[in-house]
Amino acid sequence: xxxxxxxxxxxxxxxxxxxxxxxxxxxxxxxxxxxxxxxxxxxxxxxxxxxxxxxxxxxxxxxxxxxxxxxxxxxxxxxxxxxxxxxxxxxxxxxxxxxxxxxxxxxxxxxxxxxxxxxxxxxxxxxxxxxxxxxxxxxxxxxxxxxxxxxxxxxxxxxxxxxxxxxxxxxxxxxxxxxxxxxxxxxxxxxxxxxxxxxxxxxxxxxxxxxxxxxxxxxxxxxxxxxxxxxxxxxxxxxxxxxxxxxxxxxxxxxxxxxxxxxxxxxxxxxxxxxxxxxxxxxxxxxxxxxxxxxxxxxxxxxxxxxxxxxxxxxxxxxxxxxxxxxxxxxxxxxxxxxxxxxxxxxxxxxxxxxxxxxxxxxxxxxxxxxxxxxxxxxxxxxxxxxxxxxxxxxxxxxxxxxxxxxxxxxxxxxxxxxxxxxxxxxxxxxxxxxxxxxxxxxxxxxxxxxxxxx
Length: 455
Ligand code: FES
Ligand SMILES: [Fe+2]
Prior knowledge:
- The chain is an alpha+beta fold.
- The chain folds into two domains: 39-141, Rieske [2Fe-2S] iron-sulphur domain (Rieske Iron-sulfur Protein); 164-440, Naphthalene 1,2-dioxygenase Alpha Subunit, Chain A, domain 1, CATH 3.90.380.
- It has helices at 7-11, 23-34, 119-123, 158-162, 165-173, 195-204, 209-212, 214-224, 230-238, 271-279, 281-288, 290-294, 341-355, 360-372, 411-425, 445-454, and strands at 14-15, 39-43, 52-58, 61-67, 73-77, 92-94, 97-99, 106-108, 113-115, 139-143, 146-150, 180-192, 242-246, 252-257, 296-303, 307-310, 315-323, 326-336, 385-386, 403-406.
- Strands 12-18-17-16-15-14-13-20 form an eight-stranded antiparallel β-sheet, sandwiched between helices. It has a four-stranded antiparallel β-sheet with strand order 5-4-3-6, with no helix packed on it. It has a three-stranded antiparallel β-sheet with strand order 2-11-10.
- Strand 15 (296-303) and strand 16 form a beta hairpin.
- The radius of gyration is 23 Å and the shape is globular.
- The two termini are 34 Å apart.
- The mean pLDDT is 92.
């Protein structure tokens, strides 16, 4: 298959605009990217008990993530084999079975077809019920509480898919011994724009902050600043040095440098959160080493293709692709499980205030993606988009694995699109590379026990 991009154009920092608006490319993405990639589905704290379920999407396919009696997690296609009706229409809950509300077929919590109304009258005694269960995702992994699934049997193992991204994912997932949990529900909203614009921004775009978010930054410093006069505080935010990091696999990470003597909690608006970050820094150092604990303010991240988070305030999100120019954003607030109640509350409020659907920063981003959409006009399509920032300016870091660019480099976006291109061009996983790993993943016995119970 010929992908709409070629690697030479990406190397030169050129991206064809039609990948953000063409319905045929969108359909290919569902098959070639979303049906083959490891996708984030849910956090284990959302389904702690037997029968607890959470419904979500893998690309365009609806799925049910459900806890089994033995503690494992099944992921079932949420689509009846009779006419395709969703067998579960709730967002979450607890169930022993799912009854399709169209003609009443009943499926067990493991997806098996258990009952069919008027079975004998309809099918005699020949109904092959054992072949009519809900499809189940056979590749499911629980990485430190984060449940991922992949439809493709031939996909590389999950840890290989992540490669050196585990080094950076652990800053969210494994900072303290108690692990993480979701607080509150899931924020969901629909926006105009292509899902890749959001994913590439969380992979690699610190650049837009200085223009798109500057008024929100000024308001933050004035409202919640750390006793520095507003002008001085804003100037400090605008002049920070930092990195864009490509750990391979199309994943991306961005961070500001943390100068010696500046406290870990400096980036928080809340005194309780700032104190908590300062108090848990030594535990983080013990677990993840001095460099991850002290050398950076970790900011934005994306695991290819569509799972993103911000370390600063616990917003964790999936960019669900709905059509070529529509995204459904699902956002969770993630906190350390053992954090005090006031820290959990303040993180949630901070996240809502900035990154909820009406959050001061979220509105800035959504407005941009909305007006980036519709770029598939006849004349616009003749003009490629410019992704060349930082070409030839990569550097090594003595500690952080991956290719490193400056804070405003578009290195992560280029690597995101190289990976996207690889998936779109490949006919099978045999033609998709596995990222080179340079740092072994950090897996404790307690993680193994949890993973055993989660997959
Ligand atoms: S569509 Fe489900 S029973 Fe008919
Ligand atoms: Fe933003």
